[in-house]
Structure formats: C-alpha cells, structure tokens
TrEMBL record:
It comes from Rhodoplanes serenus. GO terms for molecular function: peptidoglycan lytic transglycosylase activity. Gene3D superfamilies: 1.10.530.10, Bacterial muramidase, PGBD-like superfamily/PGBD. GO terms for biological process: peptidoglycan catabolic process. This is Lytic murein transglycosylase.
Length: 491
C-alpha cells in the first residue's frame, strides 16, 4: 500500500461543525460496528439500540438499515390510540406495518407507537424552548415544522432484523470494484483543484476523502430522498431512540435557520444522514466548513464544502499528514498469532525483525512508525499492519472492514494494485445463531468473552477463541470458522 505524498497542513481558522451485527458507535451514516466473526466479517443487521443507518450506498448494498446494541429502560407504553395520519413517503414507500417492533422495547409496541404518533404535534412544540436557546427564531421553527407529520414506517425500519452475512473479502469485492475505482479517478480529476486545495489546507490524503465519498454514497448517487427534518422529528418523538434524535432534530433546525442547506435539498436517509459523505445533523454542526467562501456550509450542493468538511473531520480525528493507513504483509511460518492483537503496537522495524515483510519486496518508508497486526481471515488469509491513520478512519466508522475498504479503494484510485495474498474464499461465514452458539460453547468451557453470548464476535470473543485454539493445539488466529464451531460441538 503506497505512502501518500507529504502535504503539510496549513493553519487556518475555519468555522466549526459536524457530528455487525451492526452496532452504532460512529457519527456518520455508516457508523455501525461490523461484527467480525474472527476474520470472516459477519455483516449482521440485528437492529436494537442506536441511531439507524442511512439509506446510503451501504444500505442499498446490503438491503436495509443496520443497528444493534443495548436497550435502555423505559416507562410502560401509553394506552392504545389511533396513529396520526401519515403523509405519503418518498418514492411510494410502504406505510407502517402497524405491528410492534421486534426489539421488544416498550416504546416500540404498536400501542406505544400509536400513542406517540397522536402526541406528535405536542412533542414538536415541546422542543421549541430548546430550539430557541440554540438561536432558532420562532418564525423559522414554525416554518420548518408546519404541517409536519410522523413517518411511522421508520419504526419498521428501525426494528427490522434481517441478517446479512458477508465475508470480509466479499465486502471488499463489492466496495472496491473496478467500476468504483474508475469513477473515483474521474471524480479526482474533475475536482482536482478543489482536492489539491483541501489537501493543502488539512493535510488529509485526497484519495481517502474520495474513497469515503465513494463508499458512503457511491459518489453521490445514493444519498437517500427522505426529508431529513421529518425523519429526525419522527424519531425524536416516536420509538426507542427519542433522546438521541431530539438532538439531531434540533441540529437540523439550526442548519435550516442558518441557511446552510436549501430546505428542499436537506434530504437523505431514513435516519437523517445527508449529503454525499452522509453527515448526521449533529456531525454537520461539529465539522462542516465553508470552504468556497459563500457564507454557507453546504455539504449537499457545494463540492468544495463537502470535500473540505470530510477532510476537516479526519484532521480533527487525528489524521497524520503524509502517512498511509497500513501495509499488506506476509507472515512467516511458525509465527505466533497471539501477536495479532489491536492492543499490541510495535514499530515497523520490530515487526520486520519478527519476519513480517511486504509481499512486493519493498521496505517500510518509516521503520519507526508503530502499527498493529490484523489478520481478518485468520492464518489462511492476508495479513496487514495497521497504522494510526487506520484508526482515524475507524473514527469515521468504527469497523475494520469499512476502514480497510476506504484505505484499499484510496490506494487503488492512486494506482496501486489489488491485495496480493489470497482470501480463504472456501470458508463459510457463520450465521448469527451459529456465532451465538460458538460463544456459548466458549463460555461453558470457561473462556471469557466479555459478557453473555450475543452473536457478535468482538475483540474479547476473538481473544477467547485464540485462547481456546492455543489450548487445543490450533493456530491461535482468533478466526471464528465453521470448522472451529464443529470442533467445539464435538469435543
């Protein structure tokens, strides 16, 4: 993986802005932790706790929203009431099913949803004092909330529980396709002057910014068409994530009051993310910048503002200018895979002394840089040394597969070749039920997975898998394979 060109960041004062199983931990549309089943990434969508993912490219790719997580206690649902009338949804989308959500949360029962819908106008008005404290005028508040009705279909989307099982390599195949690489190069050429200016200002590799654009919305072709205000207003007043979405609703009103985005253009996912790089309203407040100097921070219609805001996000998250995100490496025979741990950072020189080398024979440009070893498909797949910038990408979306897709797409757009080593494509990815069973077997054998079985294979589960593998004489690579599950079942 190539080094990026060194581009010193220029100190400038800018207006501030912005804010798996899939599990929300991020600030953007795709802020869903991808639960890695050892190395075969299980893209399991078990919706349960946090903001819903955007109707961005990733939603269309995998068929729907992605969430999961803990459920906070709530009071008992109100008595049954008729739901408020629903205005037509964009594109002829289906209306609410009228059924209780599958999460089991008391605010997701059909009766609770109907009661909240009936209270929707009053709920909106109860948020006026806080909007006023944020500088939104009464006239602006009334203008943007007039005639607002809840879109109850969002309750079905929030609590849908499809499961998508994709291997790490399938995920990369889909997101780092030849068509996307080609389009990304065209985008970089088309906006070359803007990318150059942004790279100079923020020190963030233009290819990484373009890759985020490509992954989040397929270069702006799939950003969602729901009115953001209606979506976040619905979720602020109905369902199990009201506290979170009240802040998003109020932030959306601030955006409209300031005039940053044209009201008719503030459209996006059913969760309220908008623009080619899918900002949530609170994320917009924190990171958006007016790079074109027109007095508005417009990440929807201004390519300059969108590109710069995305770079500003990465800069504030700690991007190191002139450095890459990681290297593919070949692991020597007999290597101790217990070293493959995201908490174990060694210098590249130290990894070299342990026998790790780049497959193309090149050395490491900065041997003193620190990295950790990632083996997403276990000992039979490629290995990667991940640097600090990989972690910065994961702050945009804390998922290893997402961050690798961003980094690899960026490298391919730059002209680098594909991953050299073969993926174990014969491996079958475990279902959610199988991952749950695997964790249960580990717990019964006394291995600590960090809590009760959930069906999500996180770092603690992978550590438990390594320890089990070590005790039975297997390579301790932490890979949750079907073969490993079979062994746990029979021994």
């Amino acid at each position: 993986m190539a080094e990026t060109a060194t581009t010193p960041a220029t100190a400038i004062t800018l207006a501030r802005r912005r804010p798996a199983a899939w599990h929300w931990t991020g600030r953007h549309a795709t802020g869903w932790r991808l639960a890695a089943a050892g190395g075969a990434l299980a893209l399991a969508a078990t919706l349960a706790a946090a903001p819903a993912a955007a109707q961005s490219f990733l939603d269309n790719l995998f068929g729907g929203p992605r969430t999961t997580g803990s459920i906070s206690p709530a009071s008992a649902p109100a008595a049954p009431l008729e739901a408020a009338p629903q205005a037509p949804t964009p594109g002829g989308a289906r209306p609410w099913s009228g059924e209780s959500g599958s999460s089991g949360h008391p605010l997701m029962t059909a009766d609770a949803i109907r009661a909240a819908a009936a209270d929707f106008p009053a709920c909106i008005q109860r948020m006026w004092p806080e909007a006023a404290r944020r500088g939104v005028s009464r006239a602006s508040f009334d203008r943007h909330t007039a005639g607002l009705t809840p879109e109850l279909r969002l309750m079905d989307l929030m609590d849908a529980q499809p499961e998508f099982t994709k291997a790490f390599w399938d995920y990369l195949d889909l997101l780092v396709s030849e068509a996307r690489i080609k389009r990304g190069r065209e985008i970089l050429a088309q906006h070359a002057a803007t990318f150059a200016a942004v790279e100079q200002a923020y020190g963030v590799d233009r290819h990484i910014v373009a890759a985020i654009w490509g992954v989040e919305s397929n270069f702006g072709t799939q950003i969602g068409d729901r009115p953001v205000v209606r979506s976040v207003a619905t979720l602020a007043c109905v369902g199990r994530r009201q506290a979170y979405f009240r802040d998003e609703f109020l932030a959306a009103l601030e955006i409209l009051h300031r005039g940053d985005v044209v009201p008719d253009h503030l459209k996006g996912s059913w969760a309220g993310a908008f623009g080619p790089t899918q900002f949530m309203p609170t994320s917009f407040k924190r990171y958006a910048v007016d790079f074109d100097g027109d007095g508005r921070r417009d990440v929807v219609d201004s390519m300059a503002d969108m590109i710069a805001s995305t770079a500003n996000n990465l800069k504030k998250d700690g991007w190191e200018p002139g450095r890459t995100w990681g290297y593919e490496v070949v692991v020597p025979q007999g290597f101790d895979y217990l070293m493959a741990d995201s908490s174990r950072w060694l210098t590249l020189a130290e990894w070299s002394r342990l026998g790790l080398a780049r497959p193309n024979g090149k050395g490491f440009p900065r041997p003193t840089d620190k990295a950790y070893l990632l083996v997403p498909a276990g000992a039979r797949g490629p290995a990667f040394l991940m640097l600090k910038n990989f972690r910065v990408i994961m702050k945009y979306n804390p998922a290893e597969a997402y961050a690798m897709a961003i980094g690899h797409l960026a490298d391919r757009m730059r002209g680098d070749g594909p991953i050299v080593q073969a993926w174990p494509r014969h491996e079958r990815v475990l279902s959610s039920a199988e991952r749950y069973e695997l964790q249960s077997h580990l717990v019964r054998r006394g291995f600590d997975i960090g809590g009760e079985p959930t069906g999500r294979i996180g770092p603690r589960s992978r550590t438990a898998i390594k320890r089990y593998q070590h005790t039975v004489g297997l390579i301790p690579d932490g890979f949750a394979s079907a073969g490993l599950l079979d062994r746990l079942r029979t021994r």
